[in-house]
């Protein structure tokens, strides 16, 4: 069994893959303060919940955008699983050709997302990840990542809204019943939702206008499913895309 780990700014998400099939996924809060023992206990508990033991794990692959977490998390894998993980980064084959100005600046999570989208759904494809930041990355028919866009995530924008206004409350990020809001909570939910959705649709359309050819749109990330039913511009919502991408990357480097 392979464990694929996505260490993001807000959450660490783990996927258990048995012969390429995702048999379990778990999410925990990213905290720099966690020790290797704390991470190790969580990993072994998640394995137990899925019916596995540490000895069942053949290897681990990690994609991280939080360097400060890597020491304790990597140490936990060595201590509790006796595995030094493969880390997505320089020197690791991905099967993707990164043609942006500074390829090393492309996040490991975006790289894994693009690999998953390209090898599972084909290219050309626009890959959208709804995370702490919202990222758009374009992959052409040859597997070349040639352009990207980064903007705020909807939760990040929402936190700025209620964090910088004295009388606006914290609200759940969800699809509102109507845009015709008659109270503060509904007004905030409708404003956040439709403003963000409109921005996503406009961005997709601008990619189409400037690239000049059709492409698939594959979305992933914690809030991708919130927008699934309100737009025809997203073709596929795949919450496990990064795990599929890391599985592809692992297989290209397993020898």
TrEMBL record:
The active site is at residue 109. The gene is coaX. Pfam families: Pan_kinase. A monovalent cation. Ammonium or potassium. The keyword Iron does not apply. Its cofactor is NH4(+); K(+). Pathway: Cofactor biosynthesis; coenzyme A biosynthesis; CoA from (R)-pantothenate: step 1/5. NCBIfam families: baf (TIGR00671), PRK13318.1-4 (NF009846), PRK13321.1 (NF009855). This is Type III pantothenate kinase. The lineage of its organism: Bacteria, Bacillati, Actinomycetota, Actinomycetes, Bifidobacteriales. ATP binds at residues 6-13, 132. It catalyses: (R)-pantothenate + ATP = (R)-4'-phosphopantothenate + ADP + H(+). Homodimer. Belongs to the type III pantothenate kinase family.
């Amino acid at each position: 069994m392979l464990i694929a780990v996505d260490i993001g700014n807000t959450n660490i998400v783990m996927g258990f893959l048995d012969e390429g099939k995702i048999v379990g996924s778990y999410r925990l809060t990213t905290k720099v303060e966690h020790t290797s023992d704390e991470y190790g206990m969580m990993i072994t508990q998640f394995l137990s919940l899925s019916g596995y033991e540490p000895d069942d794990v053949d290897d681990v692959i990690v994609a991280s955008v939080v360097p400060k977490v890597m020491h304790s998390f990597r140490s936990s894998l060595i201590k509790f699983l006796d595995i030094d993980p493969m880390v997505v980064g320089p020197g690791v084959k991905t099967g993707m050709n990164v043609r942006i100005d500074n390829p090393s600046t492309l996040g490991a999570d975006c790289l894994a997302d693009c690999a998953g989208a390209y090898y599972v759904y084909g290219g050309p494809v626009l890959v959208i990840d709804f995370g702490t930041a919202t990222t758009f990355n374009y992959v052409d028919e040859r597997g070349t990542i040639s352009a990207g866009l980064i903007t705020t995530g909807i939760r990040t924008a929402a936190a700025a809204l209620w964090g910088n206004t004295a009388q606006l409350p914290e609200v759940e990020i969800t699809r509102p019943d109507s845009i015709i809001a008659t109270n503060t909570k509904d007004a905030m939910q409708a404003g956040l939702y439709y403003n963000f959705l409109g921005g996503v649709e406009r961005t997709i359309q601008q990619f189409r206008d400037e690239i000049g050819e059709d492409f698939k749109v594959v979305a992933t990330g914690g809030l991708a499913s919130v927008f699934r039913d309100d737009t025809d511009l997203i073709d596929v919502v795949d919450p496990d895309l990064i795990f599929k991408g890391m599985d592809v990357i692992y297989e290209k480097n397993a020898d």
